């Protein structure tokens, strides 16, 4: 098991995360992808964590920076976290045991505890109520996962071509999750695995909301049959209460239409049905 950490201009948060990861009893190899940071990130890692493999990119590639980290992974499994998240002791050991025993599982999403008071992330509550049933002794079956709190088969990541660089950030997991499902892999919520999350204050929430909406629409048109893509796109836009944000998200999505058409690959019927079942419960 190797851990890949994605970071951008958050050296203070990264220090805390690397201290936690370096203290894990499993002692996994750690790869830090420095996404074009202009702060002290590179110096911090080189000086204080010499055992960590540091990859410094010339610019910020967003979520696709993880692809560079995975290119250097030599283990069959890879765990992901961000600079404001970290894995708790024994979680990675349990993940290895689960993946060894269940070759059908491609991705395990951890239980995420947020803040100093360790509140359950609302996304985990949604995962617990998945309409897709329960995978044996592990947890509920899913159609997606959280980018900074999952363990994946390295082969599944590579087969799905990793994260699409055009997304940058915001809901980037949806496309790779669809492709993993389409290849027959299972995505499972495994509450035995625990990730801590202390959300960074360095966030541009308005930009992130725009990108999430744009990327969700792009994902529809990249993979869904035309009719389903159209209906799902309308649902996504309808969920945005801010009229200006809704217009901007639509405009952003239309700007990439030619690229979307050129990259379009429609999912099989079974994968589309799984997605429909989850969306109907929203």
UniProtKB/TrEMBL annotation:
Keywords: Glycosyltransferase, Transferase. InterPro entries: Glyco_trans_2-like (IPR001173), Nucleotide-diphossugar_trans (IPR029044). Residues 2-127 form the Glycosyltransferase 2-like domain. One of its GO terms (molecular function) is glycosyltransferase activity. Pfam families: Glycos_transf_2 (PF00535). Belongs to the glycosyltransferase 2 family. This is Glycosyl transferase. It comes from Advenella kashmirensis W13003.
């Amino acid at each position: 098991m190797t851990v890949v950490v994605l970071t951008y201009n958050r050296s203070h948060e990264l220090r805390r995360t690397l201290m936690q990861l370096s203290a894990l009893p499993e002692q996994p190899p750690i790869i830090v992808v420095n996404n074009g940071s202009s702060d002290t990130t590179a110096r911090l890692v080189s000086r204080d964590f010499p055992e960590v493999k540091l990859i410094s990119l010339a610019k910020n590639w967003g979520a696709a920076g993880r692809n560079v980290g995975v290119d250097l992974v030599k283990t069959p499994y890879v765990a992901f976290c961000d600079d404001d998240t970290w894995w708790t002791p024994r979680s990675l050991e349990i993940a290895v045991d689960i993946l060894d025993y269940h070759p059908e599982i491609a991705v395990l999403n951890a239980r995420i505890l947020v803040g100093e008071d360790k509140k359950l992330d609302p996304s985990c509550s949604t995962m617990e109520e998945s309409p897709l049933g329960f995978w044996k002794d592990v947890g509920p079956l899913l159609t997606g996962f959280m980018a900074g709190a999952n363990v994946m088969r390295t082969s599944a990541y590579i087969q799905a071509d990793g994260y699409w660089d055009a997304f940058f950030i915001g809901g980037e997991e949806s496309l790779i999750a669809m492709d993993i499902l389409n290849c027959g892999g299972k995505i499972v919520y495994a509450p035995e695995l625990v990730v801590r999350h202390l959300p960074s204050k360095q966030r541009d929430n308005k930009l992130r909301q725009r990108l999430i909406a744009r990327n969700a629409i792009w994902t529809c048109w990249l993979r869904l049959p035309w009719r389903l893509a159209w209906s799902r796109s309308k649902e996504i836009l309808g969920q945005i209460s801010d009229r200006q944000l809704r217009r901007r998200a639509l405009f952003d999505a239309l700007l990439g239409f030619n690229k979307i058409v050129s990259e379009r690959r429609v999912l099989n019927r079974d994968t589309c049905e799984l997605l429909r079942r989850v969306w109907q419960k929203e």
